[in-house]
Structures are given as C-alpha cells and as structure tokens.
From TrEMBL:
PANTHER family: CRYPTOCHROME, CRYPTOCHROME CIRCADIAN CLOCK 5 ISOFORM X1. This is Deoxyribodipyrimidine photolyase. It comes from Natronococcus jeotgali DSM 18795. FAD binds at Y272, T284, S285, R286, L287, S288, F324, D424, H425, D426. Belongs to the DNA photolyase family.
Amino acid sequence: MSNEPPDTTAESGFEPLRATRRTALRGAGFAGLLTMGRASARQDVGVRLHWHRRDLRVTDNPGLTGDDRLLPVFVHDPAILTHGAPPVVSFLLDALDSLREQYRDRGGELLLARGDPRAVLPALAAACDADAVTWNRDYSGLASERDRAVAGALADAGVSVGVERLGGTLLHEPEHITTNDGSHYSVFSDFWREWRNQEKAAPVAAPVRGDVVDPRGSLDEEWLGEASGVAGSLPSLADLGFDDPEADVQPAGTDVAHDLLADFRDGTIYRYGDDREFPSRESTSRLSPHLKFGTVGVRTVWKATEDAASAASDGDARASVEAFQRRLAWREFHAHILDARPDVVTENYREYPNAIQWRDDPEGLQAWKDGETGYPFVDAGMRQLRDEAWVHNRVRMVAGSFLTKDLLIDWREGYDWYRRKLVDHDTAHAAGGWQWAASTGTHAQPYFRFFDPVTQSETYDPDGEYIREYVPELRDAPTDAIHEWPTLDDERRADITPDYPAPIVDYGEHHDRAIEAFEAARGDG
Ligand SMILES: Cc1cc2nc3c(=O)[nH]c(=O)nc-3n(C[C@H](O)[C@H](O)[C@H](O)COP(=O)(O)OP(=O)(O)OC[C@H]3O[C@@H](n4cnc5c(N)ncnc54)[C@H](O)[C@@H]3O)c2cc1C
C-alpha cells in the first residue's frame, strides 16, 4: 500500500492562486480582525494556513503533511452554524478543545475565528504571510459553494497564496469510483465491488514540534486576544446561540476516538457480523460522530480493520470484519451521491411521475418525536435519540419507515428532527438513510416494503431488553406483550400498564393507505 495520499488536487478544479499583490485587509468585516501583522516566526520555510473543518485531528490528516510550517485555524461560520443543533455543536466544541491541546503539545496554537471565511481567511493569510492555504475537501452543496467562494475571495484579495483542496475525509474520492459512463454509482453492491478492489492509502504521520507555527509573539494581539474571538478561549454553546443539548452527548476528541477504535478492533468487530442488527448488544463502533467531524481519520479506521482481519482466527471472524468494512463503503457511497446530487438533502433522488401525497399530521409527527406512538420498538428508538443523541442503525431504519410509511409523513420532517437531535448528523448519510426509508432513494427500498415494527421488535429485540431500557413503562410487562402491544385489546393493555399509550395508528390499516399513496405517485392507481 502506498504511504502517499492520493492526489486529489488534480481534479479539484482549483488552480493555485498566483496573485502577486498583497493588499491590506483592514476592517475585513468579521469579529476581531483589525490589524495585520507578520506572523512567520521562521523565515526560511513558508507558512501554510490550514483551515480545519471536518478534520479535527492532527493524526492521519493529509492536509497537514508537507514541508512548510503550519498555522491551523478553525472558523465558526454563522452561515454553517444556522444548520447546526445543540448535540453536534456541543461535540464540535469538545473536539476543538481536544484539537487545540494536540497543537499545544506540538508547540503551536489553533487559531479560532468567528465570521465569514471569505473575509477571515484572506485577512489571516495576509496577516501571517502565508504561502498557501489548504483544506480537506467537503462534499455537501453548501460546503462546496462556500469553498469556491473562499478560493475566489483569496484571489480577489490579492493574497499571494496557493489554494489546495485535499482528500482527508474519504478513502476514495468521487472521481475515482465511477460507472463506465463516468457517473456515480446508484446501486450499492456495484459500488462496493469497485470500492473494495481499489487500493487504500495508509494513514499519514502527524506533524511534530517544529512543524507548527506558534503564532504568539508574531501575530498581532488582535488576532490572539480573547476579545477578538480569534484565539483565547473557546466559545460556549450559548456564545454561538445554542441551548445545552437535552441528551447526554458522547465525548469527542482524538484520544476518545482512538480508544473506541482500539476496543472495537480488538474485540467487538468480531461480533459485528452476527450482532450488529441487535440494538441491545452494543456491537457497533459508535464512531459515527468521530467520522463526521474527523476526530479520527478514515485511513486509520481502515487500517484497524485490516489489522483485525489479519488477526482473525477464522473465516467467520474475517467475514465479520468485512461486514464492518461494508459500512465504511456505505459512508462513501452516500458521500459520492451527495457530491453528484447536492439536492438530495431536500429533493427526492428518484422522482415518481406524480407527487407523493404525504399526510399533514402534526399530532402523529409529535407523537413520533416524543416516542409516544404506542409502537414500543419505534418509541424506544426515539427516546434513545432524546437521551443519547444517537440511535442504533436498525432502529433508525424502523423509526424512519414508521414515519414515512405507517404515518405517511414526508421524510424531510424526519430528516429535520434527526438533524436537530443526532450527534452524528451528516447531510450525506441522513439524506441517504431517509430517502432509503421513504423509498425515494437510489437503490430504493421498494415502495411496498415496510418494516413491520412488531416483527422487527420480535426479531431484533427478542427479549425486549432494548425496549425495557428506553420505555420504562413496559419494564415489567411480559415479553410477548411488549412486542404485541399494538395488537392487544384495550383491556389487556390497561391491565399491563395505564402509563404507556395505545397505538396512534391502527395496526395493518396504515399499510394499505401507504401502498395506495405510492401507487398513485407511480401512476398505477
Ligand atoms: C434514517 C437514517 C438516518 C441516518 N442518519 C445518519 C447521520 O445523520 N449520520 C450518520 O453518520 N449516519 C446516519 N445513518 C447511518 C447509520 O445509522 C449510522 O451511521 C450508524 O448507526 C452509526 O453508528 P456506529 O458508528 O456505531 O455505526 P457502525 O455500524 O459501527 O458503522 C461504522 C461507520 O460506518 C458508517 N455507516 C454505518 N452505516 C451507515 C449507513 N447506513 N450509511 C452511511 N454510513 C454508515 C458510519 O460512519 C459509522 O460510524 C442514518 C441511517 C438511517 C436509516
């Protein structure tokens, strides 16, 4: 395997900027920047400004390799923050704290700015006399638009820098995995075959002391003082306009991610194949927010899977590792789709000839959000979301199917609720997951396929352990009654507990309603 990161700059569409005039950027219009100063402490090698976004780590970060000295920055961008929510922003702040420590351990400092990156980055590049600005590529429409605008702003400002967009988020860039006609794959099994066969790059080394610029003493105080909001202390959730999350959000940071990964590699990964669909068995990695914010590098995760495969005792153990590797491929499949079709966040990927007649059902939607539908497996998932800001994949699928099929409510409502509540919210995977559940996505769950919440609960929570944990009203109920709750008569339900609701939709009838709506959308009606 090559130690070199794949060269993604060639297809990036960004030409290095070669403007020669350095302009003063006083009053560039963001918090804290007033005065420029020269920052490069050592004049013999150039300074490169690295803009961190979803790569909040120093280890295994292709954006941090190279000969020049690094000045890292993170910009709290109000335009992006409007799409945030307390769990993700809380995780982000925790991750930034950890990143800052990682830089301090190397004699540097993470600059923290607040404002529009189109103003912040040209100004900072000028202030620190940067030769280059780098960032790792992001794939959403919003991010791509922003990045193009920042590259343009750097050029317009006449700051003499080269801009490079690097690939630190995925193992394979969208341009490298395409169908014969050059378009993105829309069938996962085909994508997987191609993705699996391509060589994967190894993790890259972290910068060491001396590779990182210590901006103190070289950048002007305005950049560094607390009042500027540029360095100094991290903002709080309240500073950024967010309430505290309702959930107990899992901790962030590279050490946490590496510990999770090591535990998973050394044990749980071998149970993944058999146990991953059972929410009470805790057999998944819980790496999703770390992969979203890049507190761990995906090459590091891949290497851990290869190590686990080499140490596997038999074919079953190797198959289990491969089941996990497929999940990493799903992650990239969805990212490639988002790159090709940025509209999947709001529009159906697969259009039906007629519009799907989603129901307007505010009470049903609220019951779903509150975990009060009277379908215990669904409610357990929605309450896990409320309490932990994370939900097991099987239950996300069942709760997603329940909303879009059983309640026939638009998938965008579910997407928006998960966006506000999940710590791992990621536009690519959320759009992929929701559109799959709603049968509007790529490889499409057929419209007539439902996840029957009773059968799902019997199959994937046979002892009712998961449901009992999150639906305490049913803690003492017999297991068969837990599963069959939606089908029991009122008297039997009242005998078991008066505290848990009756089903909000009649078991069975909603099925016919959804089939009719989808057939009408298909023009079959
Ligand atoms: C309706 C719905 C919405 C979803 N929204 C998100 C989301 O906003 N963010 C998110 O990261 N995942 C989302 N998923 C995918 C999946 O549920 C989570 O990635 C997974 O539960 C995270 O737990 P884990 O890290 O323990 O996963 P593991 O099983 O350990 O998987 C390892 C990693 O693979 C990736 N992965 C696993 N399954 C998928 C998948 N189906 N699609 C894409 N990547 C996957 C994740 O990065 C995950 O961390 C959604 C799924 C559905 C059905």
